[in-house]
Design a protein that fits this description.
heterodimer, A: about 260 residues, TIM Barrel, 5-stranded parallel sheet, about 10% strand, globular, B: about 270 residues, alpha/beta, 8-stranded parallel sheet, 9 helices
Chain lengths: ~260, ~270
């Protein structure tokens, strides 16, 4: 069983990306033997009201059992709490909020209230550190990357919240993990898509120093080739149990 | 057969205490991926006693010596690019002759001097004389100067390549950061520039754009410092390229531009 907790549907505003339709994503899942994908509507991350993409997302997920919807919430908009209720009703495994794409302070009042609401509703909150390599972004794409300090602040701000952080590299993960109390660090999961394999062996190092239970399989497709996350695992010397944990068990633990 | 045209190794006189582990990791991962030959370079002392991209002549020599030692230790697995700093022209030319005579098979130019600078002309002339390719470090669409390097972009490399149309130039790591589409537009009509697929970037659409720009005949597979992304790109290409086209990308294009006998199945 392999679950991609970090996939998108829909066009990216800053460059042409192939394979953004539901059918194309399904083909990519077939190609890479991924059994299920948590999907977010990519265009709406950039809209003033990102929740306007959620209806389409739910409708798309209803038509394909391999898709699990991860709707977007904007805690600065009136009645944003409804998104959490809708997500729960739709069987969403998580909701996402990328504060800097919404022009929000990542540790400000709106994010703290959202974090508390997610904790109370036992709804995991997903955040991306970045969507693209900072060196290649469109000259008008000035959205800063999510700072590690923000993740530390959010996990400390509510005792029940669980965070899924995607597109983080080794340095970011280490800073947050070892900058958090163990009880806090146990409520953060990291997807592996941006962690380097050999010869630097960042993923192997993190599995050794932090433990495999904190890591989940994610790809960032179709912005990134999903083959990358599989290649990282194929280059590791890990037991089948640990690999299974990364590919599916840990993410089920996150949503349990 | 699989040739990695963009590899690096480390040595004792670098800042990395884990240099042995990183070298071993590359060899081990390479075996798992199926890499037949790592064509590698060492950039001086990687910052220990002179900057990585502005290596002193002494560090250039030491790095090349370390790579020659690795080539001797792994004669079937490792081949070398001689790395030089074009600001020290006489030293650079002497180092190229010395290292090619010792069995290296290409020249590595990092970011010590802009690629279109006349100081690079004698190096390109030597490459032609010795029939070896030049691997040029590239920042894909450099919009400003970046600290620590005098990086070149594809436009500048193409200027040099047009001045030396019989020398094969390898545009380094198309996935190595920056706007790869800018590079692909620049190299499309410069037939002696080859695109190396290495780098951490695995953007959806990038490989299709590479093929649209230069075709399969000018693509070279490589990994640089992230072998997982290299393997991923190889796996993805295998899903839609023919076996013959894959052979070009995996090794036949490399065999065409490196000296005869550089690889085992020549």
């Amino acid at each position: 069983m392999r679950i991609d907790c970090n996939a998108f549907l829909g066009a990216y505003p800053w460059r042409k990306v192939p394979g953004t339709s539901p059918d194309a994503l399904l083909q990519a899942l077939e190609r890479t033997k991924i059994d299920a994908a948590w999907i977010t509507h990519l265009p709406s991350l950039f809209w003033r009201d990102p929740t306007e993409g959620n209806a389409w997302l739910y409708d798309t997920a209803r038509q394909e059992t391999r898709f699990k919807p991860v709707p977007t919430v904007h805690p600065g908009l009136a009645e944003w709490e409804q998104v959490i209720g809708d997500a729960a009703n739709a069987g969403a495994p998580a909701i996402r909020c990328d504060p800097l794409y919404l022009g929000l302070d990542p540790t400000g009042g709106e994010m703290r209230v959202l974090t508390a609401a997610c904790g109370a509703a036992r709804m995991p909150l997903m955040l991306a550190v970045r969507l693209e390599d900072g060196r290649q972004r469109h000259p008008n794409d000035h959205v800063p990357e999510l700072p590690a300090a923000a993740v530390r602040a959010l996990i400390r701000s509510d005792a029940d919240v669980r965070l899924l952080v995607t597109h983080a590299d080794r340095a970011f993960i280490e800073e947050v993990h070892f900058g958090s109390a163990p009880e806090e660090a146990r409520r953060i999961w990291w997807d592996i898509c941006w962690i380097w394999g050999p010869p630097e062996d960042h993923l192997a190092t993190l599995l050794d120093t932090i433990g495999p239970e904190r890591f989940v399989f994610g790809t960032g497709q179709p912005l990134r080739l999903p083959e990358t996350s599989i290649a990282k695992l194929d280059l590791l010397d890990v037991s089948p149990d640990k690999r299974e944990a990364i590919e599916s068990k840990n993410v089920r633990e996150l949503v349990s | 057969m699989l040739v990695d045209v963009h590899a690096h190794f480390y040595h004792q006189r670098t800042p990395r205490a884990d240099w042995r582990e990183r070298n071993e990791s590359r060899i081990t991962a390479g075996a798992r991926i199926g890499i037949s030959v790592h064509v590698a370079s060492i950039l001086g002392s990687f910052g220990l006693t002179s900057p990585t991209y502005f290596p002193s002549p002494r560090d250039v020599t030491a790095g090349n010596d370390a790579l020659l030692a690795l080539q001797r230790a792994h004669p079937d697995r490792i081949r070398g690019y001689v790395c030089v700093n074009p600001n020290y022209g006489a030293h650079a030319r002497a180092e190229i002759v010395r290292c090619l005579d010792a069995g290296m098979i290409g020249i590595k130019l990092a970011a010590s001097r802009r690629a279109d600078d006349p100081l690079l002309d004698p190096i390109a002339a030597l490459a032609l004389q010795r029939r070896v390719p030049i691997l040029q470090h590239i920042w894909q669409h450099r919009r400003r100067d970046w600290p620590g390097q005098e990086a070149s972009d594809a436009t500048e490399l193409c200027t040099l390549a047009r001045r030396h149309p019989d020398v094969p130039f390898i545009l380094a790591h198309i996935g190595g950061g920056g706007d790869w589409l800018h590079s692909l537009h620049a190299v499309a009509n410069v037939p002696n520039v080859y695109v190396d697929l290495s780098g951490s970037g695995v953007d959806g659409g990038m490989l299709e754009a590479c093929i649209a720009s230069v075709g399969v005949n000018r693509l070279l597979w490589g990994s640089d410092i992230t072998m997982d992304t290299g393997w991923a790109k190889l796996r993805y290409l295998e899903t839609f390229l023919s076996k013959d086209d894959m052979a070009l990308v995996r090794w036949k294009n490399a065999a065409r531009i490196f000296p005869p006998g550089a690889f085992p199945t020549d």
